[in-house]
Amino acid sequence: MSDLKTAVLISFLVCGVPFAAHAGTITKVSADPAVVVTGQTVTFTEEGTNPCGASNMTYGDGIVITYAISELPAKQSHVFDKPGTYTVIARGMGNCDGEATTKVQVNPAAAPPSPPSAAAGPHITSVEFAPAQGVLRRPVTFIVNGQGPCRFTVQFGDGNSKELRADLPYRFDHTYALADTYTTIVTPASPCSGRFTQLLTVTARTMAARLFDVAIEPPVTRAGQPVTMTVRGDGRCTYAIDFGDGNDDSRTAQLPDRLRHNYPAAGEYVISVTASPPCTGSADRRLIVRER
Hints:
Blueprint: H1 2-16, E1 24-32, E2 35-37, E3 41-49, E4 54-58, E5 64-68, E6 74-79, E7 84-92, E8 96-97, E9 99-107, E10 123-130, E11 134-135, E12 139-155, E13 161-175, E14 180-188, E15 196-203, E16 210-217, E17 220-222, E18 226-234, E19 236-242, E20 248-254, E21 257-262, E22 267-276, E23 282-290
């Protein structure tokens, strides 16, 4: 009996009492890349032995996160917002032990490129036509926008060209003898810059009555001197004109229409014209009146 009792006791000690559960261990953490700039993502890889169901990451920038993981190796990502040298600690949690550290160097991100600076010196910025579609044997106004004094050549596309020297913006007229689509080229001479190639369509048919521009001659005058205003357009048109000095008028005339006005006082005035239906369009122009 004593031998039987001994066998039972041994069996109880070996089989009846379970062994302690085995725990995994974090032994290493690495950063990829280890040198970054602010805003760049860093991937951390935790390595060790399993089982490991959770890990705690202390990133050194005030952020601490515990991650539920399934096993090692495990990867976590983090972004550092400020430059500096950070010590990152990975710790095992729950059924996982161990602790490992690594360092990350975070440098300031490069400043964004500055916007391109505005063109220096005199330059042409755009070329417009008034009206946008020309009419046979009626003047088309070329509007050369830009800044500064500029010498430039205009090729009208009908075999004619013109060389001009003016302070930009500048306006001038050209009349086409044939209905067609013309390639116009405005080419500045150094130091002026900005070359423009555009198509202009000229039609033979008479357009519906419309008003598209007002020209002032001279654009700079002396107080008390009369100014000639030319309201440009097509067809017979009723329009209102505001002289900018408190006076206005309403007229019905075949366009282009010319009228005169006197400014007794020096100042800067905006002349505005607005067509009344069925005529369409509007325009304005600035006038400078100096002391006598």
